[in-house]
Amino acid sequence: GQQVMQIPQYQHVQEGEDFTTYCNSSTTLSNIQWYKQRPGGHPVFLIQLVKSGEVKKQKRLTFQFGEAKKNSSLHITATQTTDVGTYFCAGRGPGANNLFFGTGTRLTVIP
Amino acid sequence: DTEVTQTPKHLVMGMTNKKSLKCEQHMGHRAMYWYKQKAKKPPELMFVYSYEKLSINESVPSRFSPECPNSSLLNLHLHALQPEDSALYLCASSLQGFNEKLFFGSGTQLSVL
Question: Is A48 in contact with B101 (Cβ distance < 8 A)?
Answer without folding.
Answer: yes
